[in-house]
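Inverse folding, one chain.
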């Protein structure tokens, strides 16, 4: 599933569509994760005023006081270019410069939702989100206070979007390795020193992933259809039984809440 770095990369790629008028709209007859609250055909003759990201959601502010919320789901791709009606193309809109914005989603776990701006804060997928990890409100005071009442392991806690958004499985693995914290450690046993280091590792890991265009390990491509580059920088993720770059011990894989966790038992205590 595309996480924060991938969605941020896509956001930056589609910002070239700002202030261009939408001339036509295509919507397939296939059902996505949810139905749009308003007809997507209301986008015609409108312009995108601004494109934002909240967690893993893209929010395009439209000139008619509505917003288009886009979630890529597990396999969604959002690209800018030509529109050739490929299989699994579920939404597309043509802009005045003949460029198309195309949403393709083979598994249909993503969605496109057009909503009135007054309903954004109460949207079912946005209203309970935690802070953005790259902003200042994700800090030691906030993080330590949240962890002290959680007995779940720290890896699972990092993937709770009500605690912090967009970290995801890959970046939780990599951040825990960078901060030398075991993914098995109960959240309420994390010291303030460890919490401060983990915050720093999360911010550093996510920013580097953004700088390298995200991670492409299955379906993800950026807005021009190109792969990301962060996957070549994985230090633990997907490296079961390979040597740790720090200590030469073997990377181990376990399953936590149905997700693979990769870590070095020697470095992460």
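Residues assigned per position:
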């Amino acid at each position: 599933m595309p996480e924060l770095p991938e969605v941020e990369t896509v956001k930056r790629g589609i910002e070239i569509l700002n202030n261009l008028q939408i001339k036509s709209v295509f919507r397939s007859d296939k059902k996505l994760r949810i139905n749009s609250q308003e007809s997507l055909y209301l986008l015609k003759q409108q312009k995108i005023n601004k494109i934002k990201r909240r967690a893993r959601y893209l929010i395009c502010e439209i000139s008619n006081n509505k917003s288009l919320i886009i979630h890529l789901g597990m396999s969604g791709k959002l690209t800018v270019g030509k529109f050739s009606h490929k299989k699994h193309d579920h939404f597309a809109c043509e802009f005045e410069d003949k460029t198309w914005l195309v949403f393709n989603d083979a598994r249909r776990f993503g969605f496109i939702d057009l909503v009135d701006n007054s309903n954004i804060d109460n949207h079912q997928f946005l209203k309970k989100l935690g802070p953005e990890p790259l902003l200042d409100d994700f800090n030691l005071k906030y993080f330590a206070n949240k962890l002290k009442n959680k007995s779940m392991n720290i890896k699972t806690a990092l993937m709770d979007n009500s605690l912090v958004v967009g970290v995801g499985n890959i970046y939780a693995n990599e951040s825990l390795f960078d901060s030398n914290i075991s993914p098995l450690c109960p959240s309420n046993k994390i010291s303030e020193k460890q919490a401060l280091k983990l915050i720093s590792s999360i911010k550093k890991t996510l920013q580097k992933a953004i700088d390298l265009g995200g991670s492409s390990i299955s379906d993800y491509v950026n807005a021009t259809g190109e792969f990301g580059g962060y996957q070549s920088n994985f230090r633990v993720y997907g490296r079961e039984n390979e040597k740790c770059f720090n200590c030469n011990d073997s990377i181990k894989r376990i399953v936590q809440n149905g997700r693979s966790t990769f870590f070095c038992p020697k470095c992460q205590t």
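The chain is about 20% helix and 20% strand. The longest helix spans residues 192-211.
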